[in-house]
Specification:
Blueprint: H1 10-16, E1 19-20, H2 26-31, H3 44-47, H4 49-62, E2 66-68, H5 76-79, H6 90-105, E3 111-116, H7 120-123, H8 128-144, E4 149-155, H9 158-169, E5 175-179, H10 192-202, E6 206-210, H11 215-231, E7 237-241, H12 274-286, E8 291-292, H13 300-304
Parallel strand pairs: 1-8, 2-3, 3-4, 4-5, 5-6, 6-7, 7-8
Helix pairs in contact: 4-6, 6-8, 8-9, 9-10, 10-11
């Protein structure tokens, strides 16, 4: 049996101990000149593949166990409203992103994750079938490329999160789900605990949060989620991928750090230090969280401190 075919899957790895995720893609690539701020869509997977591949390599070298394909906001619904009149389809972008992620992951012992994120068809009220069809276009590419597991990430509404999980679950692959919420709940006012229960009941094997809030705030919300899951007798693995910035004043803001005057072009003074990341990872682990990653602002350099 080859080393690649013998790779443990995501659920096996989580059962054995912590899994380290990667980190910031759209924000880091925007700072490097390859992504447009505002739309934050992933055309770079086609237009600047070397830049995306280089960032994958940096995360792998820093110790990431997972390489996430650069498929954020890669639905036809989102791409159709971005600036610049690009003609790339969801299938084009997701395929290019899978190729890059697999090439890098297979050079190490990393897993490839294919992710879906919110689509404007949900907030436009086009209904469940239309929304899930958007996700399915991405999922079909992920299945074709045999990614190791699937992720529904950055969702603000639990209902859309459930619809995404349902679409991913039919593949038979492990499914993770993360929402961009803090302690006051989702954009419709549903509490973190209720969101966690609904994600688990929809079929998510891994449940958690990502982006919008710093690690201190995110861990407060994760504690609420864990307590609710425990009370309901549900035992998914837990996952957290917070911002790589200090934004304590956003804790009680439903949308998170996007209302800060520094967003998105002046966040650097708020960047976490490597010692901060080490503290975050230890606190998350002690809470029982086994998938420990980062989102916007988390650079490859941050993960190196975990191994010291």
């Amino acid at each position: 049996m080859s080393a690649l075919s013998a790779k443990k899957g995501i659920l096996e790895r989580l059962a054995d101990g912590p899994v380290i995720g990667d980190g910031s893609y759209v924000v880091t690539l925007e700072k490097r000149g390859y992504v447009k701020a505002g739309p934050f869509t992933p055309e770079a997977a086609i237009e600047h593949p070397d830049a995306v591949k280089q960032l994958h390599k940096e995360f792998l070298r820093a110790g990431a166990d997972v390489i996430q394909a650069f498929t954020f906001y890669a639905t036809d619904g989102k791409l159709s409203i971005t600036e610049g009149g690009k003609s790339y389809t969801s299938t084009d972008l997701n395929q290019a992103a899978c190729d890059l992620a697999r090439d890098v992951a297979d050079s190490g012992n990393a897993l490839v994750c294919g992710g879906v994120s919110p689509t404007p068809t949900y907030t436009d009220g086009k209904g469940k079938d239309v929304v899930q069809n958007e996700f399915k276009k991405q999922v079909d590419v992920f299945v074709k490329n045999d990614v190791d597991f699937l992720l529904a990430e950055f969702f603000g509404f639990i209902e859309e999160t459930e619809w995404a999980i349902e679409t991913l679950k039919v593949t038979g692959k492990p499914v993770a789900a993360t929402m961009r919420i803090g302690p006051i709940g989702d954009l419709a006012g549903v509490s973190p605990g209720d969101c966690a229960i609904r994600m688990a009941k929809a079929g998510a094997d891994i449940v958690g949060l990502n982006c919008s809030f710093d690690y201190q705030t995110e861990l407060k919300a994760m504690k609420m989620m864990k307590q609710a899951l425990d009370a309901a007798g549900l035992k998914p693995f837990l996952m957290t991928q917070p911002l790589g910035y200090h934004v304590p004043e956003s804790e009680n803001c439903r949308v998170g750090y996007y209302d800060l005057p520094e967003y998105p072009f002046a966040m650097e003074p708020r960047l976490l230090t490597r010692w901060d990341v080490r503290k975050y990872a230890r606190e998350a682990y002690n809470m029982g969280i086994r998938y420990i990653g980062g989102c916007c602002g988390f650079e490859p350099l941050h993960w190196g401190m975990l191994w010291i």
